[in-house]
Amino acid sequence: MSYKMDKGQKAVLGDQRLGSELMESRDGVQEPCIWSSPEGGKDEAELGKRIFCNRSLNMRNIIAVGFDMDYTLAQYKPETFEKLAYEGTIEKLVSNLGYPEELLGWTFNWKYMVRGLVVDKKRGNILKMDRHKYVKVAYHGFRELTKEEKVGTYGNTLIRDAFDEPDYALIDTLFSLAEAYLFSQLVDFMDKNPGRVPARVDYARMYKDVRSAVDMCHRDGTLKQMVAKDPKKYINEDKSIVPLLKMLRDSRRATFLVTNSLWDYTNIVMNFLCESRTLDGCNFDWLQYFDVVITGSAKPGFFHEESNANLFEVEPESGKLINTDNGTPMAQVGNTSPSITLKKQNERCRVFQGGTVRHLHKLLSIGSSSQVLYVGDHIYGDILRSKKVLGWRTMLVVPELEAEVKLLWELRDSRKALQLMRSDRDHIEDQIHRLRWSLDFEDLKADQKQEKSALVEDLEFQRDQVRIKHQQAQRECHQKFHKVWGQLMKTGYQNSRFAHQVERFACLYTSQVSNLSLYSPNKYYRPGEDFMPHEFNILPM
User: Fold this and answer.
1) Do the Cβ atoms of 320 and 287 come closer than 8 Å?
2) Which neighbouring-strand residues pair with 129?
3) Which active-site residues does the annotation give?
4) Which pTM value belongs to this model?
5) DSSP string, 264-294
6) CA-angle at 327, arms to 323 and 331, nearest 5°
7) pLDDT tens digit string along 334-357?
8) Least packed by Cβ within 10 Å: which of 42, 57, 119, 123?
9) Binding-site positions
């Protein structure tokens, strides 16, 4: 099913004709027609828990469903985990990279940054762009750039900037939010305190130092050691994950886990998520829910079949790595048999480290890449590579979507009013244009010219009033989503760059991986047209 809009419908999205097309009768009650809704209807899934579809996907054709772990199965709490990452990064900047000790007293606002932003390393700016890479919102540190500054910096070149590495960095994961916030703090600090940062440090070097400090936190295990001590403090509990995995396995699909985390940390997190931890510590009961687990995968390199990365088998009890020949245990020197035999309880799931997608396909006997659905949170590390390089079907997890979709629904009347104001403004502009055309090119009498000139002045006044009212209402609506950056999936009336990437690379997207359990495992997902699917579903009626 698709909806093609005529010119009138496109001018006012809340037009009654469009509304009537989007409505369906259920027991005599009019309701919005929802794409990809559960078989039981609207009430069986909250608006914020829906799965939205960019490209048709028939789950009957999927024989294997795979998951990333961090920020996909395991949703970290930003108020504790991101704060931990922020404080660890500052400690490394001070103790290892020579930054002043007063940074240790800084605090972290975990709500300030959002995904989809771009860091301009050379200029110390944070940018939000639309799908065409036009900069719509920009901050230098925490100071908003004026329209003139934005145009002068990013809109005056004959050749459009690609806004890619090495001069720019994408804030495309939730884990990047803390480092982006710290970078903005450092930009402000350097501007106000010249000479207080290490010698010969400019904005670009400062960003590089922040990234180096983050990497140090990962290398020395600072963050993961703290999470391992108290997973509940840093990870959200989700009791739907085990039923979801059971549902997929009961539907005779293979399930696999591919994570960049190493085995020791993976085991702790999955024990917590699957509630298999005992008083004696972690066990391996959660492995029953998977056919293959690959840790230390080094994504996105993992997705390149030509990679020569070796695949090692992990002995769960000791963490010992065993050489394999494409997944088959190899006999050790002086011994004609493989060095390890896995316990019977783990026969259905073997644990590996490293390797490539070629090894995974062989282990799961996958004949065609299109038979795999992979669920991840990283638009580049998980979704783009697996979709573009392999042709896997993809589902992107966007936790922020749940609140955004609910707010879109709550603001439906306000958004309809905005669209009507925009339509009124355009209509007045057209009237002014026609009158000016008449004044410039038609042979008019003096009284006709005077009458039309007066009408132009009156319409210009009306236009200015409508423009001011519209801009103010738009800003207020924008700030209800986020006081600084606005709606995640929009930049003004255009889709944001992040939304554009979601459209291009994710077959499906949703707020939580466990939302899959609200739908039949054999569902046929179909897309809408003309709008982001989640927005199309909740247009004002």
Assistant:
1) no
2) 135
3) 68, 70
4) 0.83
5) HHHHHHHHHHTT--BTTB--SGGGGG-SEEE
6) 45
7) 554 443 333 343 465 899 999 998
8) 42
9) 68, 70, 377
